[in-house]
Structures are given as structure tokens and as C-alpha cells.
Amino acid sequence: MKEIVFVSGKGGTGKTSLMAAFTSLAKNPVVADCDVDAADLFLLLQPQQQQPHSFVGGKQAHIEADLCLREGICQQVCRFDAVRRETDGRYLIDPFRCEGCGVCAYFCIHGAIRLVADQAGVWFSSQTRFGPMVHAHLEPGRENSGKLVTIVRQEAQRICQEKGRELLLVDGPPGIGCPAIASLVGAGLALAVTEPTVAAVHDLQRLLELVRQLKVRIALLINKWDINPIITTELEALAESQKLPLVGRISYHPSFTHAQREGKTIVEYGGPVADEIRQAWLSIIHEVEANGPEH
Amino acid sequence: MRIAIASGKGGAGKTTVATNLAVLSAEMHRTVYVDCDVEEPNGGLFLKPTGLQSWPVELLVPRVEREKCLRCGLCAQICQFGALISLRGLPFIHQRLCHGCGGCAQVCSAGAIREEPRPIGTVVEGRAGELLFLEGRLEVGEAWSPQVIRALKKRIPRQTTAFLDAPPGTSCPVVTTLSEVDFVLLVCEPTPFGLHDLDLILHTVRAMNVPCGAFINRWEKDEDSVERFCLREGVPLLATLPDDRRIAEACSRGELLVHSLPEFWPLFVDLFTRLLERTDR
Fold first, then answer.
1. I need a labelling partner for B253 at 20 to 30 A (CA). Which of A77, A101, A276, B247 fits?
2. What is the pLDDT of residues A195-210, one digit of tens each?
């Protein structure tokens, strides 16, 4: 099984639109949406949801008001400023600050603090017109999106093995932090979708550093190349000097938005960009088959 | 006053809005721009601050002195993150998994665990004209964005107007950014992705009980899905920036719209006035 993870560093470069378009070109793919914070792939692939599974994230401290003697030890030991003293003297845990470390619960000699498992979201194993899809919904404001990413990816990998499918396409999150790391660890190919803007180039450099640390192979795709042809040339030079395979460049075109509004991939929608995407897909397949390690 | 600029979706225009607002505000008030997108901070590319100074952000992680260890195993019991495990009573530490809660050091009665700082990022300070510039920068390979954001926010001076440029998404880094702000400006594009992610971030903002308003970026005249959503949800629409290729091109070069396309100056002045009205109450 070969796994391609779409990442970008900067958000809004077109990861999801392009990944969905490639899904409609791939032979028997399995897809996973690992941008669990803001999962949008379902809007294009429109899965028939099956089997919701609950996702328990981290734990959260909870103070039992009856048992609390208001000594405030919890507040002293908390490193995350998550214990608040109300004006009436009660102590409360701020759920948005609580890290779930349990140090307060340990040191409360009255046993007034419990650690409670937090149902932080759900994940689905669904079916789309292109094949199986694993995706998730993280409750807004919750922690542990990296943990949920790992679950989604592992489930998609399991489906690939079970159904004997050769190709797993993963829509990754923006950034280079915890969910991005969880999406990339052990992947066959990181496909960096970038655009010719100073911000995207800056973000790409940090992404490249991360991907190298994780020892994942990388290929580059330039989206909206004609927004700034000068920076596109610089990106091409960067790819050349760092020996990064460049799998294509895609024009800035309103069909991205139009296809999205119709719930279609750009390939299904058609138009001039669809041809550029077909070309890029051939290069990606070539790249994956050239020397991609098997899982 | 602290105003955060957020959007569930990446690339919606947060940094464009935050930097232009901050530059404009700095002409009238003491203002600080705070780049809380510590994984991919971009504000500096537009503001081009000078006189940069930086400070390390560190996480306190444990180190064990084996000879003092009594092998009681309490340190491993208290660790919720699998960062400290005990093998035959002796602790082993995986520093990258450690959240820095200090639990292990506090339970160790033998004093065998010392905490030492481990760098996970930096906070950068500079000036762009009258505007104070602050940026958090996560070390590549680290997962502790919220910790860097917390350290960054501690450097925001009192009695300034602060514009906090939030990271994309809806989870912990965003929540850390939005905690204790007075107002959140939600930047959104009128596309299905944009609308869906606006809904998600609105849920986050409401769960945190912070007032908010919307900014439509790449606004199109025949597309009113976001306007209808805002009306239905009772979110005041504070400004719209039209879909204009010149804007995309100016942003691609790292230019501020209020400088390179001065026709948009009044739009940001108007937005700024509305934000002041909403936060003065």
C-alpha cells in the first residue's frame, strides 16, 4: 500500500480541492481526511456516513463542590493556570486551560477532584463514489486533534489492507504542529501543495524541515502559479536546488470555487484546470511508483 | 483591548485583515500586532518589523538522578501522558511527550527528579513604525503550539490595543489564542468550505463566550450564503473585501493593502471604527 499525504504548511493553498480531484483520478483509492479541526473533504466527496465511533480525547479535571474545602492547593500545583477562584470562594476548573495532567487531583487530599474522560469527537468509516473514506469531527475547541488524526489514519490503513487497496490518499492539516506531525509520521510520500506567495514559501520551508526530520519523501505541487509568476520561478529553482520532484503547476481559476459549490471535484467539473490536474496526477503516480517504500 | 482575528479555515485572510487593521490602529492608539499562528507565523512578512529581539520559550521537563531514586514508581503513576514510565521501579523519560505539568517532580519525595528547561520555540519582539510587533515561533518538530502561544500572550503590554492573529483550525492552539480576548473577528470566504469552517469556529467562539463579528473576504456580489448565515445566527457582519485579483497579487508579494491599494483604506477605517464601537460597550 502506498500512502500520499497532502500537506502545505500554509492553509488555503488548495490541498483539499486538489486531493479530491486526484481521488477522482485514482484507481481504487481509500481516502482519509486528517484535517480534523476543519474537515471539508466531505463537502466534495459526499460520503454516505456509516458507523460513527466516539473519540475520547484527553481527560479533564472536575471539582466536586461538596467535597471541596476551598484550600486552593489545586490552584498552587496547576502549571496551566486552569484553576480559577470565583468571587464567592469556590474553585473551578477552566476546561479550555486544563491540560488533563491530573496533578491537582493527586494533591487534593480531600479527593474532591476527579479526572473525567472527555468525549471530544466522532470518527466515521464511510463510503463515497470513489471508495471508502475515513473522516472525523472534532468538537470545536477540543484537545488531542493529533490523537484523532492518528486514529483516522490507522483506520484508513486498516481498510486498505483488508480490501487489498493499493493507494491511500490523505488530506492533511495546515501547520507543522501536533496534527501535521501525526499525519506525516511514516507516510510514503508527502505531497506539499504550495502557492507563489511570500507567506506560502515561508511556510513551505518550515514544512520541508519537518518532513526531513520525519524522514518522509516529498514532492512539490505549485497551485495558483500565475498569481505571481516571479515567485513561481523561485519555487521551481528551490525545487531544483533541493532536488525536490516538482509534479506540476496548476493555474488560478474560478472553477475551483464553482466545482466546490456544485459538490464536485474539479476533474468532474471539467475545464482547463482539469487537464493540468490530470498531467500532475501522472507525475505523482510516477513519483510514488518510482521508489516509494511499501508499508 | 484585545481583538482576535480567527477563521476555522486556513488561507481565509486572517493575516491580511490583522496586519492592515493593526497598521491603521497604530496611527491613533498604542497598538500591538501579535502573531499567534506559531506554527506558520506570516505577519512579519507583511509588517517587516525591525529591531528584533527574541526570547526562548521553554518547557520544564524532568531529569532523573538515578542514585537518589527509591523506586517507588509514583512519578510514573502521576504521569498522564506516558512521558515517564517506570521499568522495575526506575523511571524512564520521553521528553517529547512531556507536557511540563511538573507532577513527577512534585510527587518525588526523594528529590530524585529535577526539572530543566527544554526550548520549544521563541517569542520575537520588534517594531514596524509606531506598531509594536510580537510573534511566537514554534521550533520545527515540536508539538507544543499552545505553550508557545501562552508565553507569547504574557508579553502583550497592558493598555494597548492588541490584534491577535489566530492559527487556523478550532482546537487547542485556537482556544489558547482566544482565551481572554474581548472580541473575535471571524474571517470567512463565501465558499462551501469557508461557510462550513465559519460554522465550526462560531461554535468554538460561542463555547468560550466571547462576542464576535464577521468579515467576508473575497466577497462576490451574487453569492450571499455567508450573509444569510450571519443573519440567521445573529452574527454582525462588519466588513466585506471584494474578490479582486489585484488583492491576491499584492498579498502574494507581501504588501499591505492599506499601502499598495489605498482605495481599501476607508474599508479598514470603517471596520476599525465598528470594532471600537463593539468593544467599548
1. A276
2. 999 999 999 999 999 9
Domain count, chain B: 2
CATH of residue B245: 3.40.50.300
End-to-end CA distance of chain B: 12
- On whether the CB atoms of residues B164 and B3 are closer than 8 A, the answer is yes
If asked whether residues B204 and B254 sit together in one domain, one would say yes
Residue from the list B37, B99, B171 with its beta carbon closest to the beta carbon of A145: B171
- Structural domain that includes position B150: 2-57+121-280
Same domain, B17 and B78: no
Nearest to A103 among B38, B78, B141 (CB): B78
pLDDT tens for each residue of B133-147: 999 999 999 999 999
Residues 6+ apart with CB under 8 A from A239: A220, A245, A246
CB spacing of A228 vs B253 below 8 angstroms: yes
User: Grid coordinates representing A116?
Assistant: 473525567
Statement to judge: residues B131 and B173 lie in one domain: yes
Give this complex's ipTM: 0.94
**Residue ranges in chain A whose pLDDT is less than 50:** 295
Contact A202 B45 (CB under 8 A): yes
Which residue of chain B comes nearest to A15, CA vs CA? B10
In a domain, B116, yes or no: no
Q: Given this model, what pLDDT does residue A291 score? A: 66
Distance from the Cα of residue A48 to its chain's centroid:
21
Suggest the residue from B17, B35, B171 to mutate for an interface test with chain A (most A CBs closer than 10 A).
B171
Interface touch B252/A196, C-beta < 8 Å: yes
